[in-house]
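To close the section, here is one more complete example, presented without commentary so you can practise reading it yourself. The ligand is S-adenosylmethionine.
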Amino acid sequence: MVELLNGLLLNGRFGQFLPKTPNEKRKTVNGKRHSGCTFVTKRTVPDLYHIPVLLDACLEGLAIRPGGVYVDVTFGGGGHSRAIVEQLDETGKLFAFDQDDDAAANAASITHPGFRLVRANFRHLRKYLKLYGVKQVDGVLADLGISSHQIDAAERGFSTRFPARLDMRMDQTAPLTAREVVNTYGEDQLHRLLGMYGEVKNARTLAAALVRSRFSSPIETTADLTGILQKLAPKGKEFKYYAQVFQALRIEVNQELVALEEMLAQTVEVIRPGGRLVVMSYHSLEDRLVKNFIRTGKFSGDVEKDLFGNADVPFRAVTKKPVEPDADEVARNPRARSAKLRIAERT
Ligand SMILES: C[S@@+](CC[C@H](N)C(=O)[O-])C[C@H]1O[C@@H](n2cnc3c(N)ncnc32)[C@H](O)[C@@H]1O
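Output:
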């Protein structure tokens, strides 16, 4: 959990140097690394919408075949997707999912004929692939969480740094906002989610304070919320406390763990035997879930065994330990600091 907080804090700090709108400038990152595809000759990315993390390790993890079919379930700025299509030939395919409409603008520069952007939640992975006539794929990549752009877009309400309406939706058409959560959830519900998703130590006291406060007037903005938090935050650790609470609300608003479980469960059917599952997470709740799933094929309980007592699991871990960025990458991109990449092969 601390890793996620670090990520958020670093994102916040790092974000101060970022342009405020996507696509303000575009820059060429790399025109060379590529395997014969003639559709993308220069790797261009929207300048600092989001810097892709552990890019080479993700590509290696996917073990890309030029004519294969791949899915990037978290398109964002498209950094990983762009690098994937560079390795595909004209018969290869990449389906990229994102539930945030802001991400769509980043797809315009990808001209590979096998590339499709799917504007949807990745919890519908199987359904959308079916819609495109695809039953099985060679690899699925997930780079979880939110992009630097989302954190830095003040009006989205993800950041403690900007006064904004309490929103925090990745999908701006979804019905549940952080405002609804703090103003309508019961005290017990608030207590539970603050403790579970934010590991907030005084979750019960905070839940009671939120309920008391909204009695006199609704909690509408990030500033309203931090005003309440200020009184309960440990001295000298205010910013960390705010980040814990914002993180808990964000996970609840976007049902992040539920969506992750649903998507992972579908990869068993969607990835062909020998295909790859590559997942990068930024906090321990997600990483634990991914690790257990790869080890057991489930989200709780022990490994299933067949009649002969052999483990019956859908994936084999390719790397025993998660891959983490080195010091150089963290220096270049502080957001990478808490990343943990797990790679598995469908058995
Ligand atoms: C960390 S960013 C991905 C960055 C991307 N790999 C890149 O290099 O630019 C995560 C992205 O995934 C999207 N996302 C997160 N959860 C999602 C979900 N359940 N369904 C669809 N998109 C999701 C977010 O909107 C965000 O744009």
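Once you have examined the tokens, check your reading against these statements. Strands lie at 26-30, 43-46, 69-72, 93-97, 115-118, 137-143, 271-281, 315-317, 340-346. Residues 1-46 have pLDDT under 50 and may be disordered.
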